[in-house]
């Protein structure tokens, strides 16, 4: 079968960040033996169910997967049998306790680290509910640069009260610390989070659209000038340093998701399925693999919309003929002409791409294309 990635969701964190709406729980001391049995059982089940004998990439996400025992990560990696040269990514936080185990994770088979930096300002880290300092961050980056083949970290911008000059200074420092890849995420207020409740109370207001757009534009220019090209809406990389596992998502290729609440897109007997795992860790451990995953077949038109939504995030865009094959009909020429006339999209042969202006209003473009 074709390229298939593996995502492992580790749902535990030492604290829950106020902006986070992921499936996360406070770390109460996870039993590595129980999780080893569950996760390896999942891999064996998917091997039988979908015929997946090896994975083209492996990604430990969360939550905070660097809290898991490195021996557990090793067991999962060995069972996944990643293909030669596969990217194996681990998300981590730059705290002292996690930094001390970087070498153990590298020895276990992790070759790419994604560090949750979020900001290079201590006051902002406190606002974001993070449990590390800027000095810890810089130390963690220095250690990681010497341990892992590939390294990335992320920052959050469009924070309340953040000026354009503030962002310019912070991003300049980040680019000096970067090693080939940087992820830049706009602060969004997700329903049900602590930040959502704070905004509703009037404690503070999110950044305005004009400031958010100005900070996005500045970031793209500064990253490009530094040699980190904007290959995806929120991700910049030097050539050859793009996140290979995440490219599977954006290029709408198959991936298995295991761990509580993990999602996947798995092809079984020619049919693509959406897969969703049980979200609660206790329920997950108590269930058998067949009980853990809900499988929903995706129609061709459903796949076409998902492919478009993911692929237009990439600077390379999407294939119009692939969309037509999935949807059973081409995108409307009138709509494409309208969006192109407004300077939002480019059609280059079979490839449809967003312009810089189009990337700023991605959701609106998608709405026009799929209505």
TrEMBL record:
Probably acts as a heme chaperone, transferring heme to an unknown acceptor. Binds one molecule of heme per monomer, possibly covalently. Binds 1 [4Fe-4S] cluster. The cluster is coordinated with 3 cysteines and an exchangeable S-adenosyl-L-methionine. Keywords: 4Fe-4S, Chaperone, Cytoplasm, Heme, Iron, Iron-sulfur, Metal-binding, S-adenosyl-L-methionine. GO terms for cellular component: cytoplasm. This is Heme chaperone HemW. It comes from Aquisalinus flavus. Residues 1-229 form the Radical SAM core domain. The keyword Nucleotide-binding does not apply. Belongs to the anaerobic coproporphyrinogen-III oxidase family. HemW subfamily. Its main location: cytoplasm. GO terms for molecular function: 4 iron, 4 sulfur cluster binding; coproporphyrinogen oxidase activity; metal ion binding. CDD domains: Radical_SAM (cd01335). It is found in: Cytoplasm. The lineage of its organism: Bacteria, Pseudomonadati, Pseudomonadota, Alphaproteobacteria, Parvularculales. Pfam families: HemN_C, Radical_SAM.
């Amino acid at each position: 079968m074709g390229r298939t990635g593996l995502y492992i969701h580790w749902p535990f964190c030492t604290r829950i960040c106020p902006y986070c709406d992921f499936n996360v729980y406070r770390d109460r001391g996870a039993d590595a033996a129980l999780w080893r049995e569950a996760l390896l059982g999942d891999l064996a089940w998917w091997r039988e169910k979908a015929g997946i004998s090896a994975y083209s990439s492996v990604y430990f996400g969360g939550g905070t997967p660097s809290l898991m025992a490195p021996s557990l990560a090793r067991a999962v990696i060995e069972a996944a049998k990643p293909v030669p040269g596969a990217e194996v990514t681990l998300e981590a936080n730059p705290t002292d306790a996690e930094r001390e185990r970087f070498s153990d994770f590298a020895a276990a088979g992790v070759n790419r680290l994604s560090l949750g930096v979020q900001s290079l300002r201590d006051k902002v880290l406190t606002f974001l509910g993070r449990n590390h300092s800027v000095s810890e961050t810089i130390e963690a980056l220095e250690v990681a640069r010497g341990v892992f083949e590939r390294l990335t970290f992320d920052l959050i911008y469009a924070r309340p009260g953040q000026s354009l000059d503030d962002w310019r200074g912070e991003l300049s420092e980040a680019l000096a610390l970067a090693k080939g890849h940087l992820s830049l995420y706009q602060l969004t207020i997700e329903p049900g989070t602590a930040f959502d409740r704070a905004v509703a109370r009037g404690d503070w207001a999110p950044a305005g659209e004009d400031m958010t757009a100005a900070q996005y534009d500045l970031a793209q220019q500064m990253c490009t000038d530094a040699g980190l090209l904007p290959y995806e809406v929120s991700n910049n990389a030097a050539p050859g340093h793009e996140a290979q596992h995440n490219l599977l998502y954006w290029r709408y290729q198959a991936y298995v998701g295991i761990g509580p609440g993990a999602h996947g897109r798995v092809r079984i007997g020619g049919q693509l399925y959406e897969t969703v795992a049980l979200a609660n860790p206790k329920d997950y451990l108590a269930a058998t693999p067949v009980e853990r995953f809900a499988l929903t077949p995706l129609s061709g038109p459903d796949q076409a919309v998902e492919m478009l939504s993911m692929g237009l995030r990439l600077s390379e865009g999407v294939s119009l003929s692939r969309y037509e094959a999935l949807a059973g009909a081409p995108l409307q020429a009138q709509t494409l002409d309208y969006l192109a006339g407004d300077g939002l999209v480019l059609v280059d042969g079979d490839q449809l791409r967003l312009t810089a202006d189009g990337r700023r209003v991605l959701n609106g473009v998608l709405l026009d294309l799929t209505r």
